[in-house]
Amino acid sequence: MEPIDELRQQRLKKLEELRRQGINPFPNDFRVSHTTAELHQRFQAFSAEELEKERECFKLAGRIIALRSFGKAAFIHLQDRKGKTQAYIKKEFVGEAGLELFSRLDIGDLVGISGTIFRTKTGELTIKVKGIKLLAKSLRPLPEKWHGLRDVETRYRQRYLDLIVNPSVREIFYKRTRIIQLLRQFLDQKEFLEVETPMMHPIPGGAAAQPFKTRHKALGIDLYLRIAPELYLKRLLVGGLERVYEINRNFRNEGLSPVHNPEFTMLEFYQAYATYHDLINLTEEMLTSIAEEVLGGVKFNYQGQAIDLTPPWPRLTLLQAIENYGKAKAEDLLDKKKATQFARKIGLELSGKESLGEIQVGIFELIVEPRLIQPTFITHYPREVSPLARVDEKNPELTERFELYIAGLEIANAFCELNDPLEQRERFNQQQRQKKESEADEGPEIDEDFLRALEYAMPPAAGEGIGIDRLVMLFTDSASIREVIIFPQLRPK
Q1: pLDDT (average), residues 293-315
Q2: What CATH architecture is 165-314+374-483?
Q3: Deepest of 270, 286, 316, 440, by most Cβ within 10 A of its Cβ?
Q4: What DSSP letter does each residue of 385-397 carry, written as one string?
């Protein structure tokens, strides 16, 4: 294959030739009457003889992705947003000027065509082109002779090329949009109100994560891109909006991995007068209904593993899960010294400053999380790692919280909300003490306005966050979060 620069020069030469002939290579005066999919749906069952009687002229526009020329005739494949179709160009139909224009076209060009429909001798539905118009000249050739773009780095950096040459990638993002539509539809039907809360916060809060920092010049203050909308959404519960949700971006100044991107999309929703048990049932109903709509059923494969979303899904406490999957003894997990010994034995790196709850969660994430293939709710997280959750009345060291895992991915996190303002202040103060002792940069600040809001009485409630990107990964069989974020963050070249 010739070097890109040489091919680009050849196309630039064609561009200049078109301009000299008075042809605008970038017009905007062509209107489409049909998509490729509409034509195929309408005429798929028609025989060649029946199509010969069709006289309707159709106007389509799209990108040339294949071209076979035979001198005074040619076949092209035209791709639009709905699919692709074959078109037949012949001097007898388009005339001398049309054939001359066609000789200046290349794979990758955007064109508009008009013509009737027929079947070739091989039985393929084809447009008999009566008119052709260049709509945008492509100055660069499509990659790898247009049969597919396989280099992952190039695919992510030049997503526009990925979308052109890989139809399966376009399907991922169509499904992503559909999944978000279904989430909204589900919550709307449950009488949740969609809201929008600030993306720039004066205080980072709602989760333990390193924020991105910016500066507001007019106000002369530092602001932080939000790491979670939680504290604002709970303010709305105080205000009487008893069921609220938001779908939007969160930003966390953390590393990259197959399941982490610095900016990601979250659904968070809160329901007054509900417990985490109610949200378990709601989550099962929500995700199974989406699977049925998007995948046609609740059984599917993810990365070679058979997944079955048939409810009810198993529920295990955090300690039960470690006992089952890590072969640890319950009494050892409740003793900090023994839990530390077990953690180091399985290869968990510890600084020595961790609390017992943090050690337990570290053990769980290392040896249990990757093995939770079928949908499983893990409940009763330690109080130390759940600063915004209500404690379990039977055991104040634990909280009324669950996380949902499917295919080894954390999909959802939910808990009964702590609405005692005095206890919430003490939890925040404890976080600050731990942050100071560990000399860590991460950790939320004390949000005095949120505490003030709680003092006006927040109803008992349960709230949940669902990672949209990971949910899309699951429902599109994508191994990496970069496959489902249309423009993922990448290291600079």
Answers
A1: 98
A2: 2-Layer Sandwich (3.30)
A3: 270
A4: G-TTBPEETTEEE
